[in-house]
Amino acid sequence: MTIKKSSTNSRCLVLGFLLGAAVLLSAGCSENGGKQPSEAADVANVTQPTKETTEERVARRAQAHMDALIARDWAKAYSYLPPATRQLKPLEIYADKMKSGAIIRTAAKVKSVECESDVCQVTVDLSYVYSGVVTAFRGEESKSLVKEKWIFSQGDWWLAPQ
């Protein structure tokens, strides 16, 4: 049996071809995660975030703030106060004030948001139970429309201190 020695040119040609094919295949896979081009486009369209309006953003933050109050999660509720307010009033003082309140929030739903420039008026439909010292009203569930002012500062919307 005789083994023919191949020329250096044909070896280089074969290696070049294999290297080029490997580069093309790896580039094609990394570009779309190994999926067909149409599949990759579908995933990109699904995962792109939608643009939120100012009113939607404020409504979402106001609802999250109310949800934190209902859960009695004072740290989370506190996080919706403006940064300047949080610098002046420590969380412990805020939490103590909230714990000593005469109402226990049981449900809340943002009813409307009206914005002008950097200020929004939010109306919340609030259900609560009174737990204060006036025994005639204690323990009864009540409903009320609560008006809140939200302000735009430092890149986001915050519940204005009252």
Can you walk me through this structure?
The chain is α+β, with helices and mostly antiparallel strands and 162 residues long. The chain has a domain at 54-159: Nuclear Transport Factor 2, Chain: A, CATH 3.10.450. It has 6 helices and 4 strands. Strands 1-2-3-4 form a 4-stranded antiparallel sheet, with helices on one face. The longest helix has 25 residues, at 8-32. The model is unreliable at 1-46 (pLDDT under 50).
Summarize the helices and strands and which ones pair or pack.
Blueprint: H1 8-32, H2 37-47, H3 54-70, H4 74-78, H5 83-88, H6 91-99, E1 103-116, E2 119-130, E3 141-153, E4 156-159
Antiparallel strand pairs: 1-2, 2-3, 3-4
Approximate shape: globular
CATH class of the domain at 54-159: Alpha Beta
Can you give the mean pLDDT?
79
Strand order, biggest sheet? 1-2-3-4
How many DSSP E strands? 4
Spatial extent as radius of gyration? 31 Å
Beta percentage is 25-35%
* Helix content percent band: 40-55%
Structural class: alpha+beta
Tell me the CATH architecture of the domain at 54-159: Roll
Which key phrases capture this entry?
single chain, 162 residues, alpha+beta, Nuclear Transport Factor 2, Chain: A
Short description:
This protein has 162 residues and is an alpha+beta fold. Helix content is 45%, strand content 27%. It has a four-stranded antiparallel β-sheet with strand order 1-2-3-4, covered by helices on one side.
